[in-house]
Amino acid sequence: CPPNAILFTYEDNDTYPLWYAQEVEGIRTDVRVIVNTLAGSDWYMNQLRYKVNNSAPYPLAFTQQQVQGDNRQIMYYVQMPGFDQNKYYDLPSTLKNVLASDDEKYLTTSDEGLQYNITPIRKFVMPVNKEAVMKSGVAQPGETIADEIKIDMSKKSYLLRSDLLILSLIANGDWTRPICFTSLSGPQDLGIEKYVRQEGMTYRFVPFESKTDEIQIDYELAYNNMMNKAV
């Protein structure tokens, strides 16, 4: 992973060795390891608000109360007047005004009397700060930086709190904190597989869209990471 990255893991086999490497051997304590199956837990999500080892806090779009207990544990998709299901909505403003809104119109009550958050939006667009991309060093010579990133989650009938966490990190990161995944299944579930690049054993979220169905691979960097780096 690049320095100060956040790394989403998906299975025990790619989680426990990393925990051991960091907490026992003190290896790469700048990387924030997030287990996807735990990412929707309120206590686990709130750890991002604090420094852990050498990993600085991460800004979130939700207050601690908004993700406490069952709040936003799941947000069902419901069509609502005034929202076009085929339109891509600005991600930062949608997080603020819809997904993190406490307006009662984004609540529904089940037959059992339980309240659930709902969302009329499953397609998001994130403008790319090209100046920040250049400063981050993620751009390779000759690569065309995308003007915007489109996130299509229309295949999902609901958003989990772990989905909201990743959307929040994408919206607030501004390319200063790399986002990586140990498995391609994570980006595919989020609808961002066209914006990841394999750099060895990880897939990095990048502001470059693949024009084919093939996953982007940085062969030179991947070879160096696999063959020449000890950790």
Topology at a glance:
Blueprint: E1 6-9, H1 16-23, E2 32-35, H2 42-46, E3 74-77, E4 89-90, H3 91-99, E5 107-109, E6 115-119, E7 123-127, H4 130-136, E8 148-152, E9 158-160, H5 161-173, E10 179-181, H6 185-190, E11 196-198, E12 203-205, E13 216-217, H7 219-227
Parallel strand pairs: 1-2, 1-10, 3-6, 4-7, 11-13
Antiparallel strand pairs: 3-9, 5-6, 7-8, 10-12, 11-12
Helix pairs in contact: 3-5
Count of alpha and pi helical runs:
7
The biggest beta sheet, please?
6 strands, mixed
Spatial strand order of the main sheet: 2-1-10-12-11-13
Estimate the global geometry from the Cα principal axes: globular
For the record, give the distance between the C-alpha atoms at the N and C termini, rounded to a whole number. 10 Å
Order of helices and strands: EHEHEEHEEEHEEHEHEEEH
